[in-house]
Specification:
The protein has 384 residues and is of the alpha/beta class. The chain contains 16 helices and eight strands. An eight-stranded mixed β-sheet has the order 1-8-7-6-5-2-3-4, with helices on both faces. The N terminus is likely disordered.
Length: 384
Protein backbone atom coordinates (compact mmCIF):
# COMPACT_ATOMS: atom_id res chain seq x y z
CA UNK A 1 0.00 0.00 0.00
CA UNK A 2 1.48 3.34 -1.02
CA UNK A 3 1.24 6.56 1.00
CA UNK A 4 -1.83 7.80 -0.88
CA UNK A 5 -3.67 4.54 -0.37
CA UNK A 6 -2.68 4.51 3.31
CA UNK A 7 -4.03 8.06 3.72
CA UNK A 8 -7.35 7.13 2.13
CA UNK A 9 -7.65 4.08 4.37
CA UNK A 10 -7.09 6.18 7.49
CA UNK A 11 -9.46 8.91 6.34
CA UNK A 12 -12.41 7.23 4.62
CA UNK A 13 -14.96 9.32 2.72
CA UNK A 14 -17.34 11.23 4.98
CA UNK A 15 -20.31 10.65 2.65
CA UNK A 16 -21.37 7.75 0.46
CA UNK A 17 -23.90 7.87 -2.39
CA UNK A 18 -25.93 4.64 -2.45
CA UNK A 19 -28.43 5.11 -5.30
CA UNK A 20 -28.73 7.36 -8.36
CA UNK A 21 -24.98 7.77 -7.97
CA UNK A 22 -24.13 10.33 -10.72
CA UNK A 23 -27.06 12.53 -9.70
CA UNK A 24 -26.16 12.25 -6.02
CA UNK A 25 -22.50 13.08 -6.59
CA UNK A 26 -23.43 16.06 -8.74
CA UNK A 27 -25.74 17.33 -5.97
CA UNK A 28 -22.96 17.05 -3.40
CA UNK A 29 -20.49 18.94 -5.58
CA UNK A 30 -23.06 21.64 -6.32
CA UNK A 31 -23.50 22.45 -2.64
CA UNK A 32 -19.99 21.90 -1.34
CA UNK A 33 -18.86 24.94 0.68
CA UNK A 34 -22.43 26.26 1.02
CA UNK A 35 -24.09 27.01 4.38
CA UNK A 36 -27.52 25.36 4.56
CA UNK A 37 -30.63 26.36 6.45
CA UNK A 38 -31.91 23.67 8.83
CA UNK A 39 -35.66 23.24 9.33
CA UNK A 40 -36.96 20.59 11.71
CA UNK A 41 -40.66 19.73 11.52
CA UNK A 42 -42.09 18.23 14.70
CA UNK A 43 -45.15 16.04 14.73
CA UNK A 44 -46.92 13.34 16.69
CA UNK A 45 -48.95 10.23 15.96
CA UNK A 46 -50.65 8.08 18.56
CA UNK A 47 -49.12 5.17 16.65
CA UNK A 48 -45.95 5.97 18.64
CA UNK A 49 -47.70 5.10 21.91
CA UNK A 50 -48.25 1.45 21.01
CA UNK A 51 -46.07 -0.74 23.26
CA UNK A 52 -42.94 -1.88 21.45
CA UNK A 53 -43.54 0.14 18.29
CA UNK A 54 -40.57 2.47 18.88
CA UNK A 55 -37.42 2.69 21.00
CA UNK A 56 -37.40 6.50 20.91
CA UNK A 57 -38.38 6.64 24.59
CA UNK A 58 -38.38 3.81 27.12
CA UNK A 59 -42.14 3.94 27.77
CA UNK A 60 -45.19 5.17 25.86
CA UNK A 61 -45.44 8.12 28.25
CA UNK A 62 -41.79 9.01 27.59
CA UNK A 63 -42.47 8.93 23.85
CA UNK A 64 -45.22 11.49 24.26
CA UNK A 65 -42.50 14.06 25.02
CA UNK A 66 -39.66 12.89 22.75
CA UNK A 67 -40.18 15.46 19.99
CA UNK A 68 -40.71 18.27 22.51
CA UNK A 69 -37.49 17.41 24.36
CA UNK A 70 -35.50 16.94 21.15
CA UNK A 71 -36.66 20.33 19.89
CA UNK A 72 -35.47 22.02 23.07
CA UNK A 73 -32.08 20.32 22.90
CA UNK A 74 -31.71 21.04 19.20
CA UNK A 75 -32.27 24.74 19.85
CA UNK A 76 -30.47 25.21 23.17
CA UNK A 77 -27.98 22.38 23.49
CA UNK A 78 -26.88 21.17 26.90
CA UNK A 79 -28.70 22.95 29.76
CA UNK A 80 -28.51 22.32 33.48
CA UNK A 81 -32.29 22.34 33.93
CA UNK A 82 -34.17 21.92 30.62
CA UNK A 83 -37.94 22.24 30.69
CA UNK A 84 -38.17 18.84 29.00
CA UNK A 85 -35.14 16.57 29.56
CA UNK A 86 -34.30 14.07 26.83
CA UNK A 87 -36.35 10.93 27.56
CA UNK A 88 -34.61 7.80 28.82
CA UNK A 89 -33.95 5.09 26.24
CA UNK A 90 -33.48 1.37 26.78
CA UNK A 91 -30.18 1.68 24.88
CA UNK A 92 -28.45 4.47 23.01
CA UNK A 93 -28.73 8.25 23.04
CA UNK A 94 -30.95 10.64 21.14
CA UNK A 95 -29.68 11.42 17.63
CA UNK A 96 -30.22 15.08 18.50
CA UNK A 97 -26.70 14.95 19.98
CA UNK A 98 -25.36 14.59 16.43
CA UNK A 99 -27.57 17.30 14.95
CA UNK A 100 -26.84 19.75 17.77
CA UNK A 101 -23.08 19.13 17.53
CA UNK A 102 -23.18 20.27 13.89
CA UNK A 103 -25.60 23.18 14.33
CA UNK A 104 -23.61 24.45 17.33
CA UNK A 105 -20.17 23.79 15.85
CA UNK A 106 -20.90 25.31 12.43
CA UNK A 107 -23.50 27.89 13.54
CA UNK A 108 -26.12 26.75 11.05
CA UNK A 109 -29.39 28.73 10.99
CA UNK A 110 -32.24 26.71 12.52
CA UNK A 111 -36.03 26.88 12.22
CA UNK A 112 -38.41 24.72 14.26
CA UNK A 113 -41.98 23.98 13.15
CA UNK A 114 -44.85 22.48 15.14
CA UNK A 115 -46.95 20.49 12.69
CA UNK A 116 -49.01 18.82 15.41
CA UNK A 117 -47.72 18.08 18.91
CA UNK A 118 -49.60 17.17 22.13
CA UNK A 119 -48.26 20.39 23.66
CA UNK A 120 -45.92 23.15 22.49
CA UNK A 121 -42.16 22.91 23.09
CA UNK A 122 -40.42 25.22 25.56
CA UNK A 123 -38.48 26.94 22.75
CA UNK A 124 -39.69 29.26 19.98
CA UNK A 125 -41.37 27.39 17.14
CA UNK A 126 -43.47 28.34 14.14
CA UNK A 127 -46.84 26.81 14.95
CA UNK A 128 -48.92 25.53 12.03
CA UNK A 129 -51.96 24.90 14.24
CA UNK A 130 -51.96 21.23 13.38
CA UNK A 131 -53.07 18.42 15.65
CA UNK A 132 -51.52 15.08 16.60
CA UNK A 133 -52.57 12.22 14.35
CA UNK A 134 -54.66 9.35 15.63
CA UNK A 135 -53.18 5.87 15.37
CA UNK A 136 -52.90 4.85 11.72
CA UNK A 137 -54.71 1.57 12.49
CA UNK A 138 -57.95 3.58 12.80
CA UNK A 139 -57.81 4.48 9.11
CA UNK A 140 -58.80 7.98 10.26
CA UNK A 141 -55.50 9.54 11.32
CA UNK A 142 -56.34 13.14 10.41
CA UNK A 143 -59.16 15.21 9.00
CA UNK A 144 -58.65 16.01 5.32
CA UNK A 145 -59.11 19.71 6.07
CA UNK A 146 -56.14 19.48 8.45
CA UNK A 147 -54.07 17.75 5.79
CA UNK A 148 -54.84 20.44 3.22
CA UNK A 149 -54.11 23.24 5.71
CA UNK A 150 -50.75 21.73 6.67
CA UNK A 151 -49.79 21.26 3.02
CA UNK A 152 -50.54 24.92 2.29
CA UNK A 153 -48.32 25.92 5.21
CA UNK A 154 -45.58 23.63 3.91
CA UNK A 155 -45.70 25.24 0.47
CA UNK A 156 -45.59 28.73 1.96
CA UNK A 157 -42.65 28.00 4.24
CA UNK A 158 -40.76 25.90 1.72
CA UNK A 159 -40.48 28.98 -0.46
CA UNK A 160 -39.47 31.16 2.51
CA UNK A 161 -36.79 28.71 3.61
CA UNK A 162 -35.36 28.43 0.10
CA UNK A 163 -35.12 32.21 -0.13
CA UNK A 164 -33.42 32.28 3.28
CA UNK A 165 -30.91 29.71 2.01
CA UNK A 166 -30.08 31.93 -0.98
CA UNK A 167 -27.81 29.98 -3.35
CA UNK A 168 -27.44 27.11 -0.89
CA UNK A 169 -29.82 24.35 0.16
CA UNK A 170 -32.42 23.56 2.81
CA UNK A 171 -32.16 20.62 5.20
CA UNK A 172 -35.66 19.36 6.01
CA UNK A 173 -35.53 17.27 9.18
CA UNK A 174 -38.23 15.57 11.25
CA UNK A 175 -39.03 14.29 14.69
CA UNK A 176 -42.02 11.95 14.84
CA UNK A 177 -42.03 8.94 17.15
CA UNK A 178 -43.63 6.05 15.28
CA UNK A 179 -42.88 7.77 11.98
CA UNK A 180 -41.34 4.77 10.25
CA UNK A 181 -44.67 2.97 10.66
CA UNK A 182 -46.69 5.83 9.15
CA UNK A 183 -44.02 5.95 6.42
CA UNK A 184 -44.64 2.27 5.67
CA UNK A 185 -48.36 2.98 5.48
CA UNK A 186 -47.96 5.91 3.07
CA UNK A 187 -45.48 4.06 0.85
CA UNK A 188 -47.76 1.03 0.70
CA UNK A 189 -50.77 3.21 -0.05
CA UNK A 190 -48.85 4.78 -2.92
CA UNK A 191 -48.27 1.34 -4.42
CA UNK A 192 -44.62 0.95 -3.36
CA UNK A 193 -43.70 -2.50 -2.01
CA UNK A 194 -42.14 -1.29 1.25
CA UNK A 195 -43.09 -4.17 3.56
CA UNK A 196 -40.00 -5.65 5.17
CA UNK A 197 -37.79 -2.81 3.89
CA UNK A 198 -38.30 0.01 6.38
CA UNK A 199 -36.12 0.77 9.40
CA UNK A 200 -36.82 1.31 13.07
CA UNK A 201 -35.08 2.50 16.22
CA UNK A 202 -34.87 -1.13 17.38
CA UNK A 203 -31.75 -3.17 16.57
CA UNK A 204 -34.00 -5.68 14.79
CA UNK A 205 -36.85 -4.03 12.94
CA UNK A 206 -40.33 -4.98 14.16
CA UNK A 207 -41.65 -5.57 10.64
CA UNK A 208 -44.57 -7.84 11.62
CA UNK A 209 -45.94 -5.38 14.17
CA UNK A 210 -45.72 -2.49 11.70
CA UNK A 211 -47.28 -4.45 8.85
CA UNK A 212 -50.28 -5.58 10.92
CA UNK A 213 -51.04 -1.97 11.83
CA UNK A 214 -50.64 -0.82 8.24
CA UNK A 215 -52.90 -3.54 6.83
CA UNK A 216 -55.57 -2.62 9.36
CA UNK A 217 -55.31 1.09 8.62
CA UNK A 218 -55.49 0.63 4.86
CA UNK A 219 -58.41 -1.82 4.94
CA UNK A 220 -61.10 0.69 4.05
CA UNK A 221 -58.97 2.87 1.76
CA UNK A 222 -59.99 2.36 -1.87
CA UNK A 223 -57.97 5.19 -3.42
CA UNK A 224 -54.31 6.08 -3.94
CA UNK A 225 -55.24 9.74 -3.85
CA UNK A 226 -52.51 11.29 -1.65
CA UNK A 227 -54.94 13.47 0.32
CA UNK A 228 -57.17 10.53 1.23
CA UNK A 229 -54.13 8.41 2.03
CA UNK A 230 -52.64 11.00 4.39
CA UNK A 231 -55.97 11.51 6.13
CA UNK A 232 -56.26 7.76 6.62
CA UNK A 233 -52.79 6.69 7.76
CA UNK A 234 -50.38 9.65 7.68
CA UNK A 235 -48.84 11.94 10.26
CA UNK A 236 -48.71 15.76 10.30
CA UNK A 237 -44.99 16.01 9.53
CA UNK A 238 -45.24 14.15 6.23
CA UNK A 239 -47.59 16.54 4.47
CA UNK A 240 -45.77 19.64 5.74
CA UNK A 241 -42.35 18.43 4.56
CA UNK A 242 -43.79 17.27 1.23
CA UNK A 243 -45.08 20.80 0.67
CA UNK A 244 -41.79 22.34 1.76
CA UNK A 245 -39.81 20.06 -0.55
CA UNK A 246 -41.98 20.85 -3.56
CA UNK A 247 -41.74 24.62 -3.03
CA UNK A 248 -38.07 24.75 -2.00
CA UNK A 249 -36.98 22.59 -4.94
CA UNK A 250 -38.18 25.31 -7.32
CA UNK A 251 -35.53 27.67 -5.91
CA UNK A 252 -32.57 25.52 -4.87
CA UNK A 253 -31.34 22.33 -3.26
CA UNK A 254 -33.26 20.22 -0.76
CA UNK A 255 -31.81 17.58 1.55
CA UNK A 256 -34.56 15.43 3.05
CA UNK A 257 -32.85 14.45 6.30
CA UNK A 258 -33.90 10.96 7.26
CA UNK A 259 -34.22 7.42 5.97
CA UNK A 260 -37.50 5.55 5.55
CA UNK A 261 -39.56 8.56 6.58
CA UNK A 262 -38.00 10.87 4.02
CA UNK A 263 -38.23 8.32 1.22
CA UNK A 264 -41.94 8.27 2.01
CA UNK A 265 -42.06 12.08 1.97
CA UNK A 266 -40.34 12.17 -1.42
CA UNK A 267 -42.80 9.62 -2.86
CA UNK A 268 -45.64 11.63 -1.36
CA UNK A 269 -44.37 14.92 -2.79
CA UNK A 270 -44.16 13.32 -6.23
CA UNK A 271 -47.71 11.97 -5.96
CA UNK A 272 -49.07 15.33 -4.81
CA UNK A 273 -47.22 17.24 -7.54
CA UNK A 274 -48.63 14.89 -10.16
CA UNK A 275 -52.15 14.88 -8.69
CA UNK A 276 -52.35 18.66 -8.34
CA UNK A 277 -50.19 19.57 -11.36
CA UNK A 278 -47.77 21.51 -9.17
CA UNK A 279 -44.42 22.61 -10.59
CA UNK A 280 -41.32 21.32 -8.78
CA UNK A 281 -37.72 20.35 -9.51
CA UNK A 282 -37.18 16.81 -8.19
CA UNK A 283 -33.60 16.73 -9.52
CA UNK A 284 -32.76 19.29 -6.81
CA UNK A 285 -33.68 16.84 -4.02
CA UNK A 286 -31.67 14.14 -2.24
CA UNK A 287 -32.45 11.96 0.77
CA UNK A 288 -29.64 12.06 3.35
CA UNK A 289 -29.34 9.68 6.28
CA UNK A 290 -26.82 7.73 8.37
CA UNK A 291 -24.95 4.57 7.44
CA UNK A 292 -26.73 2.85 10.36
CA UNK A 293 -29.90 3.25 8.32
CA UNK A 294 -28.43 2.71 4.86
CA UNK A 295 -26.55 -0.45 5.93
CA UNK A 296 -29.22 -1.75 8.35
CA UNK A 297 -29.21 -5.56 7.91
CA UNK A 298 -32.75 -5.86 9.29
CA UNK A 299 -34.22 -3.48 6.70
CA UNK A 300 -33.51 -2.66 3.07
CA UNK A 301 -33.24 1.10 2.75
CA UNK A 302 -31.22 0.92 -0.45
CA UNK A 303 -33.73 -1.44 -2.05
CA UNK A 304 -36.56 0.82 -0.90
CA UNK A 305 -34.84 3.86 -2.39
CA UNK A 306 -34.52 1.98 -5.67
CA UNK A 307 -38.24 1.12 -5.55
CA UNK A 308 -39.12 4.76 -4.90
CA UNK A 309 -36.81 5.69 -7.79
CA UNK A 310 -35.34 8.95 -9.05
CA UNK A 311 -34.07 10.39 -5.76
CA UNK A 312 -30.46 9.76 -4.65
CA UNK A 313 -29.92 8.15 -1.25
CA UNK A 314 -26.77 9.42 0.44
CA UNK A 315 -25.44 8.77 3.94
CA UNK A 316 -22.84 9.99 6.39
CA UNK A 317 -20.21 7.38 7.20
CA UNK A 318 -19.87 8.55 10.81
CA UNK A 319 -18.89 5.74 13.18
CA UNK A 320 -19.10 5.43 16.96
CA UNK A 321 -17.04 2.24 17.19
CA UNK A 322 -14.37 4.03 19.21
CA UNK A 323 -16.68 6.17 21.35
CA UNK A 324 -15.99 6.37 25.07
CA UNK A 325 -19.76 6.39 25.65
CA UNK A 326 -21.77 3.16 25.66
CA UNK A 327 -24.82 5.15 24.58
CA UNK A 328 -23.10 6.13 21.34
CA UNK A 329 -21.49 2.72 20.75
CA UNK A 330 -25.05 1.36 20.85
CA UNK A 331 -25.56 2.87 17.38
CA UNK A 332 -23.10 0.28 16.07
CA UNK A 333 -25.38 -2.42 17.53
CA UNK A 334 -28.38 -1.09 15.60
CA UNK A 335 -30.08 1.04 18.23
CA UNK A 336 -31.62 4.44 17.38
CA UNK A 337 -29.86 4.88 13.97
CA UNK A 338 -31.33 8.25 12.91
CA UNK A 339 -33.69 11.12 13.72
CA UNK A 340 -33.93 14.89 14.20
CA UNK A 341 -31.92 15.40 11.00
CA UNK A 342 -28.81 13.62 12.35
CA UNK A 343 -27.72 12.17 9.02
CA UNK A 344 -28.47 15.31 7.07
CA UNK A 345 -26.61 17.53 9.53
CA UNK A 346 -23.63 15.16 9.47
CA UNK A 347 -23.55 15.38 5.66
CA UNK A 348 -23.77 19.18 5.88
CA UNK A 349 -20.86 19.24 8.31
CA UNK A 350 -18.60 17.79 5.64
CA UNK A 351 -20.00 19.86 2.78
CA UNK A 352 -19.90 23.26 4.48
CA UNK A 353 -16.71 23.39 6.54
CA UNK A 354 -15.09 20.18 5.42
CA UNK A 355 -15.37 18.27 8.69
CA UNK A 356 -14.00 14.76 8.39
CA UNK A 357 -15.55 11.73 10.07
CA UNK A 358 -13.04 12.27 12.89
CA UNK A 359 -13.91 15.96 13.27
CA UNK A 360 -17.59 15.11 13.54
CA UNK A 361 -16.88 12.24 15.93
CA UNK A 362 -14.99 14.55 18.28
CA UNK A 363 -17.76 17.18 18.12
CA UNK A 364 -20.39 14.61 19.12
CA UNK A 365 -18.13 13.16 21.83
CA UNK A 366 -17.72 16.66 23.25
CA UNK A 367 -21.42 17.36 23.45
CA UNK A 368 -22.05 13.87 24.89
CA UNK A 369 -19.42 14.54 27.58
CA UNK A 370 -21.06 17.85 28.49
CA UNK A 371 -24.47 16.19 28.57
CA UNK A 372 -23.21 13.42 30.84
CA UNK A 373 -21.56 15.94 33.17
CA UNK A 374 -24.79 17.93 33.32
CA UNK A 375 -26.75 14.77 34.12
CA UNK A 376 -24.41 13.98 37.02
CA UNK A 377 -24.79 17.53 38.39
CA UNK A 378 -28.57 17.29 38.11
CA UNK A 379 -28.53 13.94 39.90
CA UNK A 380 -26.37 15.30 42.73
CA UNK A 381 -28.60 18.34 43.12
CA UNK A 382 -31.75 16.20 43.36
CA UNK A 383 -30.10 14.02 46.03
CA UNK A 384 -28.97 16.96 48.19
Amino acid sequence: MNATQQGKANNPPAIRVYTQIPQGQAWLECYRGKCPVVACVLGFTETGLIPGISAAGATPDDRRYTAIADAEFLMNGVQLQPSYPLPPLHRGASPVLISRAVIEGQQLPLYLFNAGLPQPPAVPVIDFQGVPARCLSTGQAMEQATVEHLFAQGLLWGEKLAIAAADSYVILAECVVGGTTTALAVLTGLGIAAAGKVNSSHPTCNHDQKWKLVKTGLTSLDSRDPWSLLAAVGDPMQVVVAGMAIAASRVGGVLLAGGTQMLAVYALARAIAQKSALPWQPQNIVVGTTRWVADDPTGDTVGLAQFVGEVPLIATQLSFVDSQFAQLRAYEEGYVKEGVGAGGCAIAANLYLGWTNLDLFHAVESIAARYQQKSKKTSRSSND
